[in-house]
Each structure stands twice: as C-alpha cells, then as structure tokens.
Specification:
The complex is a heterodimer.
Chain A: H1 11-53
Chain B: H1 16-47, H2 58-88, H3 91-123, H4 131-152, H5 156-170, H6 173-183, H7 204-246
The chains are: A mainly alpha, B mainly alpha.
Chain lengths: ~55, ~250
C-alpha cells in the first residue's frame, strides 16, 4: 500500500483542514470528558455530605 | 391501559438510572469503534490516488463530507429531543437536546471551514453567498442561537422551552440545506454518496474512505453525546442535592 502525504501545491489548504478537524475533535473530547467528570464529582461530593449529616 | 412494563427494552432511553447503566459501557464502546474506524479511514484517505481534477484536495472530502452530514444529523437529533422535551417534559430528552447542540455546532463549523479551504483552490474563492453555503451558515446560527438562549435566561425551565421552540423552527432549514443544490443554481456540487444521481457516484477507491470516515464521525458523535448526557444527569442530581441542603 502506497501512502501519499505530499499534497504539493495544495498542502497549504489540505493540512490546515486536517489540523482544524483534529483540533475540533480534541476540543469535543476534552470538553465532554471534563464536563462529565466535574458534575460527577460535584454530585458525589454533595451526596457524601448529605449522607454524613443524616441522623 | 395496562401498567407500564418496567423491563421494556427501550427503558434505558427514558429511565435515568437505566440510561446511566447503559451509557457507562456504550459511551466507551462507541469511542473505541470511532478510534478504530478513524485509523482505518485515515489509512484509506492517504492511500487513495489523487483525483484527476481535484488533485490532492480530494482527501479533504473525507473529512468535509462526514462533518457536513453530521451537522444535519445532529440537528435532527436536537429537533427530535427538543420535541420530546417540549411535549412530554422528559428530563432525559432535554438533557439529550442540550448535550448534542455544542457537538452539532462544532461539526457545522468544521464543515464550513474545511469546505472553505477546499473552495479556495477549486472554485477560486473562500466563500460565495450560494444557497448551500448560506443555508449551512444559517444552520450554524441556529445551533449558536440555541446555545445562547439556553444560557441567557436564568430560569432554566423557561430557557429550555424557548430553546426547544427555536430548535423546532430550525428544522425547516434541514430540507433547505439538503435540497439547496437541486432547488437553486449552486456552485456546490450535488450528492455523490448516498443520494447520488446515476453516474454521479464515487468510485470505490474514494467511496470506501468516505464511508469509513463517515462511520467514524457517527460513532464519535454517539460516544460524546452519551458522555455529555451523563454530565447533564449528574448536573441535575448535584443541583437537586444542593437545593435540598440549602433548604436544610
């Protein structure tokens, strides 16, 4: 299998398109995971606090 | 009317506890599928020959077309979830709606940016006020308007209802985007994938990377959507606990 990474005169358009796509996916993954982690920890913290104060 | 079957196979879509149990394994599973498909898709992308007209810019199609398809599909998900949230006032449906909007906005922005980068060398311009490009820009504005409305109002329920109505209005734009190249004279080419007219379809050497990358994008969306809905469920639980504790 032959791979062609030389985009020649179009490299200035091709590589930024792939870089933008990679950046968008990195943002979507990081933001989704960070949001899930943040709210899971907050819910667990408040749940633990409530369990502590239960008579 | 009989009592609702507690073990209905679709309960995981309506019962938050069952949804959390389902998404706990489904989200990473879709993520792994997306990573494998993306790796295979990239191999096929850079192994494909140059196009006789587009040259190396043909490789941009394998990231542009899936982003454009997902921009429409995600908006359809947003519309259906908004409808269910508005009519049945279901918390999971509202979580599903708000969770997919940022992802849809990102796919739409990607479709516009990669399309623009392809348009400059192929059409000789970054942008034209053409029916397809303009309607996709309007789609991005609907996503951004939805997100702005959700965060603009302090009353979350009012914000959710207003944003859901906006999302439903925006559904009108989907057939306009899809059929714009047929209804008006457009610089943008017609479909060469699923709905291609006879003779307009892609040859296998380009159809395979397009199909694999499209499935990779779809799986990635599935995984991230589930992760974001899980975040909304935890957020709702945290808010309820905080309120309980504030009330003493």
């Amino acid at each position: 299998m032959h791979f062609d990474f030389d985009a020649g005169k179009y490299a200035v358009y091709v590589w930024p398109a792939f870089a933008l796509t990679a950046a968008a996916f990195v943002w979507m993954i990081a933001d989704s995971l960070a949001s899930a982690r943040r709210w899971r920890r907050e819910a667990e913290r408040l749940q633990a606090k409530r369990d502590e104060t239960k008579p | 009317m009989g009592a609702r079957d507690p073990h209905h196979p679709l309960d995981f879509l309506t019962n938050p506890e069952r949804f959390m149990a389902f998404s706990r394994w489904a989200a990473p599973m879709f993520g792994v599928i997306a990573a494998v498909l993306a790796a295979v898709g990239l191999v096929l992308t850079f192994a494909a020959p140059e196009d006789y007209q587009q040259g190396d810019t043909v490789r941009m199609m394998f990231i542009h077309v899936p982003a454009a398809s997902l921009s429409l599909f995600v908006y359809l998900c947003l519309g259906v979830a908004s409808f269910l949230a508005l009519v049945f006032r279901h918390a999971l449906a509202d979580a599903a709606a708000v969770a997919c909007a940022p992802l849809g906005a990102a796919f739409t922005a990607l479709a516009l940016a990669t399309g623009s980068l392809w348009g400059k060398p192929m059409w000789g311009t970054w942008w034209v006020w053409d029916a397809r490009l303009t309607s996709v820009l309007v789609l991005l504005l609907f996503y951004l308007g939805y997100l702005a409305l959700r965060s603009a109002l302090e009353d979350e329920q009012k914000a959710a209802r207003a944003a859901a109505i906006l999302a439903l209005v925006g559904l009108i734009n989907l057939p306009i985007v899809k059929f714009s190249v047929e209804w008006w004279n457009s610089l943008h080419q017609g479909s060469s994938t699923l709905f291609a007219k006879p003779g307009n379809g892609l040859p296998a050497v380009y159809a395979w990377p397009m199909l694999v990358m499209s499935l990779a994008y779809l799986s990635a969306f599935g995984s991230l959507w589930l992760v974001r809905i899980r975040a909304r469920v935890w957020r709702r639980k945290a808010r309820a606990l905080a309120l309980q504790q504030a009330e003493g």
